[in-house]
Amino acid sequence: MTDDATGMLGDLVMRVARTQRRRWREALAPWDLSPHQARALRVVSERDGVRLSDLAQALRIAPRSATEVADGLQERGLVERAADPGDRRAVVLTPTAAGRRVQREVDDARAADSHELFARLSAQDRAELARILRTLTD
Q1: Which of 45, 65, 90, 98 could make an SS bond with 84 (beta carbons 3.0 to 4.6 A apart)?
Q2: What is the pTM of this model?
Q3: How confident is residue 58, by pLDDT bands cut at 50, 70 and 90?
């Protein structure tokens, strides 16, 4: 493959990623959540509670940024903060009932959107794309 064709592949991958991010932001609009908030809510819900430091690590963001994301989720009543029973200096975030409900709704919306986007491809093409992307992932 020539360097031009390889560069074109990189550009296409970036365009698809931008399309997916735009669609993801649009899918989150009914809940007024940012992508960071949605990812944080998923982490907190999946782990049924998480320290702020672990949230920052899971999201690959600075601890200060994780605090800001958690603040936004707490203000919306989607998570609660409590002292970590094992270390009272640490804070643990847990999902509220509303947070769990929103997480399920967001997951459903995201799945529906992904289905719509990838329905453009045949089942065979989707399987091949998944194989290729897994090969390129770290």
Answers
A1: 90
A2: 0.82
A3: very high
